[in-house]
Amino acid sequence: MFSFVKHEAFRSMTAKSTVTLVFKQFPPYNFKLHPFNFSTQNLQNRESFDSARIQKSSKFLVYCNSQITKLGRNGCIKEAESVFNRMPHKSTVSWTAMLTAYAENGEINKAQEVFDKMPDRSIASYNAMITAYHRRNMVNEAFELFSSMPQRNSVSYATMITGFVRVGMFEMAEKLHWENPGMVSSNVLINGYLKARRIEDAVRIFDGMEEKGVVSWSSMIDGLCKVGKIVGARKLFDKMLERNVVTWTTMINGYMKMGNFKDGFTLFLNMRRERVEVNATTLTVLFEACGCLDRYREGIQIHGLVLSLGLDFDAYLANSMIAMYSRCHSINAAATIFDLMVQKDIVTWNSLIAGYVQSGDIEKAFLLFENMPQKDVVSWTTLISGFASKGMIDKSIGLFQMMPEKDDIAWTAVISGLVSNEEYETAFHWFIEMLQKAIKPNPLTLSCVLSAAAGVAILSQGLQFHALVTKMSMEYDLSIQNSLVSMYSKCGNVGDALRMFYYIESPNVVTYNSIITGLAQNGLGKESLKLFTKMQDEYLEPNQITFLGVLSACVHVGFVEEGWRFFNLMSSLYNIQPQVDHYACMVDLLCRAGMFNEAVELISSMPFDPHEGVWGAMLGASWTHLRLDVAELAAHNLFELEPNSATPYVILSNLHSVSGDKRKDEVIRSMKISKGIKKSPGDGDQGVEQIQDRLKWFEVPQGMWIRVWDKDKTVSSGSKCGTKTRPFQVVRRCSSYSSSCYTQNEHHRRSGATLKH
């Protein structure tokens, strides 16, 4: 009796040897039986023999069909062809499998050729060819074939609706849905509307469904979560009569993505109480949330659940655990899991490298990188970012230049590293070089250059990048929207920052952090605190950065009681331990209010040594309130923390002078001179006019113009539009991105509703 090839054995074979193996496992179809087999004594067994032979032939056909499908999905199109061509008998399924294999590998002409040669076509064959057309966005050809079908099923309609939705032809999709308003067609149309953020249309189709399956409910919940409609998603979830693990996981993930860990974790506990069996996806969502939101305690609990369920050998989960422990600053636990793993894939290695980078151990990260059996773009970019995070820009760039292939992610890693090290000039030049090499920037790239524009605090520079974002149709990306809010705030344009904020459909925690901090920095503390209340009303969980902005807002408006309340709220309600910057804000708040004794007590209670920001806040307030004793305390601490800073000497000297103690005034001045400390006018900062004079026009390939920094600090005399900074400059993007030219007047017209000076 012929044995089937074991799955494990098959996987270990090369694709070429697999083809040969397929045909060695079965007898040929044209073999002849010996006459002895038809002797009288054996005739009675003939019927059972033929039945067994037919059964084996059927198994062989099914097996070959499955191998064609598998080889096609793995990109082994030649091997799939070999199996198909050597089959003595081909069914309609065989032809369809070969057609699909060609389509999945982008060979639409060969797929069409197979379809034309098919002796018999089934509905599945037509559906496969329609899908092939959709893969190449050949909607007209797909609809023509769909219209010629002798018979259609629900999959046919769903496939065609998918094609229309993909290219935005929702009217045609609606017409087909009206012809076949079944559950499958409805689910496809709902998903299309949700991806296009047409929530009302998705709800309309959903409400009109006579029968709703779990997939329908889950799709709606997932779509609402993705656009930030978390309350509406929860209402749908609560209405469901039947929920499976996918539905629960979708709702939990929705909460976690919005930064609402409390409600997400509570829902997970309810899931366990209702004895719904969790799967690896559920646990991965939880691990990711624990890592991103620094929930170490809950992460350990989930790890314990993984062990009790016997899922600790799941590589996918193990990778998630490594990432979680790394983000929660428990790199030793992450390394232990890594060492215990029997099979490590490239994600495993990348996760631990990222962990070492996050913990600041760049040497171990580099050692692990060098020992990797295989490296991908993520491996390189993680280490590039790691060197940049340690201020080692030269090594970061050197590693980038060693990369065998550089994509937009690699370029973004370098630009991001430059921005984080406040090397904004160089970041602009790298961005231009990226465009010169015809590498299209991604949303994160543009977020980085917007951050650079915010760093130089020149509004006209930021406006040009905003125009570029619009022309590249990336204005709906949330990371870019958040960067725009931050950029306008740092440039002092609070009106546009608020307009951008209210323009965002689904603001997340980062969005609120940007606007809360931005308003506080511009002296609008009351408005900042109102938005914090709005953030809480939307069930978004604040983090350390949020409270830093909130406390800063309290400082600017002098809300001492509110400041204490928010400071205590961090640990009591949100389980966030205040860091030194939070203490610095509170010290600043108390000192500005003249409450120096309370400020000193707070400094004494700090679980870590105060940094220069704490003593600097006290020193500044001592000058305001003319408190010489406080100034001496703060200044003597700053002498040790910032030995080259002239500020404490100047303030202390001035206070002694005001108090009439000229002798001590002279002593302080002599100390400053003896240490060689000189006061730099403006602390070495350049004025806006000086910075603007260092800008020039830089021409990039195919007519793109954008203002960038001139490293030589000279202005190009050959610029087409002059050298003076203007509110809106022409930024024309490469023709490879768009055939249209974006003119200055058009930019004024289109952005006038939202961008005003």
TrEMBL record:
It comes from Cucurbita argyrosperma subsp. sororia. NCBIfam families: PPR. GO terms for biological process: RNA modification. It holds the Pfam family PPR. PROSITE patterns: PPR. The keyword Repeat applies. The keyword Cytoplasm does not apply. Keywords: Repeat. PANTHER family: (PPR) REPEAT-CONTAINING PROTEIN, PUTATIVE-RELATED, PENTATRICOPEPTIDE REPEAT-CONTAINING PROTEIN. PPR repeats lie at residues 91-125, 182-212, 213-247, 345-379, 407-441, 508-542. This is Pentatricopeptide repeat-containing protein, mitochondrial. One of its GO terms (molecular function) is RNA binding.
